[in-house]
Amino acid sequence: MPRENFRILVVDDEQSFLLLLTRILQDAGYTVKGMTNPAETLKILDAFLPNLIITDMKMPGMDGIAFMESVRGRYSDVDFIMITAFATVETAVAAMKLGASDYITKPLNEPEQLRLVVSKVYEKQRLVNENRFLMEEVFEDLPPQEIIFAGMESVLREIRDVAPTEATVILYGETGTGKSLIAGTIHRLSNKRGPFVDINCAAIPENLLESELFGYEKGAFTGAVARKKGRFEMANDGSIFLDEVSEMSLFLQVKLLKVLQERTFERLGSVTTLKTNARVIAATNRDLRELVSTGKFREDLFYRLNVFPVNIPPLRERKDHIPAISGFLSRGISARLGKGPKTIGNETMRRLREYSWPGNIRELENILERGIITSRGPDLVLPEFSPAVSCAGEAAPSGDLRSVEKAAIENTLAKTVGNRRQSAEMLGISLRTLQYKIKEYGL
Question: Which residue, 90, 131, 147, 149, has fewest beta-carbon neighbours within 10 Å?
Fold first, then answer.
C-alpha cells in the first residue's frame, strides 16, 4: 500500500495543533484530512474512508472515547491513535484498553514522535493487506479438491484429519505430483488466519536461503540497506511451506531444527529473538531416511519433520483419473492463453492414458499447453512426447539413456535461450536437479 493511499483523519478542536499534525503527516506522504468537530466528522466517514484516525481525548460535545466507539460501530477495522495532554501511564493504558493502537502527547515534543507512531500503524496495515492478497491469490488459483485429489481419496482423508491441528506435515512425492497444491489445501482447511507462505529450498542459492527464511537487519551484510522480514516472520499466524526441504544444507538444517523445537529464530545481524507460531508444512521428492543414513540430512530434524508424513502417489498410479485432470487443465490453460476450449478426442486421450508420466501433473500440464498453443482447429493435437523427451526422472540414467537425456536438456535450453527455470518447468524437473545435470554433463 503506497503512503498516498493511506488515509489519515485528524480530529482535534485546537486549530493550531490540528494544522501542525496535518502538515507533518502530509509531508511524510500520507493523505490527510483535518476536522475540529467530532460530530461533523462522523458525517464524512463514508466519503473519506480513513485507514487511521488520530483524535484528541478531550473535546467539547463528544470526547475521544465516545467518538471512537461511534466509529468502531460502523468501521471495525479502522485504527486509532489517541491524543492526550496528560503523559501518564494511566491515560496510555486506558487508551489501549479501548482499542487504540498507540497515543501521542500534547504538546508534541518533536515531529519524529508522530511520524514513528503513525509509521507503525501504516506498516501493520500494509502487511495485513499484503498477507490478505497473498492468501486470496493462493486460494483463487487452487483447483477444486476433486481435481487435486483425483485418485487420492485416502490422501484427502489424511489431509482433512491433520489440517485443523498444529502438527508438522511432510509430503513425500515425485516431482510434479502437486505437493504445493496439497500444502495450500492443508492451510485452507486449517484454523490459521495468517498467510500461506511458500519457499522452494532448492531454487534459492544456499548463501541467500538463510536470509530468505529468517530475514536480516540493516547492515547485516553488503547490500542489506534496510531491514527485511523473512518467510517465517511473514508466515506468523499462518503456514510456511518448505518445498524440497531435503536440499537444505546441514548448516541451515540446524537453524530449522531450532525453529521447530523452540519456535524462535533471529534475523541475520540481530541478537533479538523472535517467536513464530507458523505451522510448518514440508515436502520432498527424496527418501529422507536414506539421506539420514548417508549423513546428508540430520536425524533429529527428520524426526521433527516426520510427525505426520503423507505419501503422494504418482500420476501413473491413477491413470483412470487422467481424463478429469486433463479436461480441467486444458480448460484453464486455454482461458489463460486466450484461446477457445479444445476437444480431447479418443485417440489423444488414449495417448495420455498410456504414457507413464515421469514428470507427473507438471509434465502433463506442459504437454497440454504446448498442444493448445500449436493446435489450429477445435481439436487438441498433442506434440510428440516420450520419457526420453520429457527427461523427468530424478535417478541418473545409464548407457544410451544418458546421451538421450543430455540431448533433451541441450534442446530445451536452446528453446528457452538458456533460461534454466523455464527449462526445468518444461522438462518437469526441479531447478536444482537441472543445475546438477548441467554440471554433470558439462553443458
Answer: 90
Q: What is the Cα–Cα distance from 325 to 85, expressed in whole angstroms?
A: 66
Please name the residues in contact with 316: beta carbons below 8 A apart, sequence gap of 6 or more.
356, 357, 358
Return the pLDDT at 83: 86
Give the dihedral sign, CA 428/431/437/438. Answer: positive
In contact, 206 and 435? CB cutoff 8 Å: no
Which is it for the CA torsion 429, 432, 437, 443, positive or negative? positive
Number of H helices, E strands in the chain: 21, 14
Q: Could you tell me which residues are beta bridge partners of residue 349? A: none
Cβ contact 201:244 at 8 Å:
yes
Assess whether pLDDT exceeds 90 at residue 224: no
- One-letter amino acid of 402: R
- Widest CA span in the chain: 89
Q: Which domains does the chain have, with CATH numbers?
A: 3-123 (3.40.50.2300), 142-311 (3.40.50.300), 317-441 (1.10.8.60)
Kindly report the pTM of this predicted structure: 0.59
By C-alpha distance, which of 84, 76, 187 is closest to 134? 187
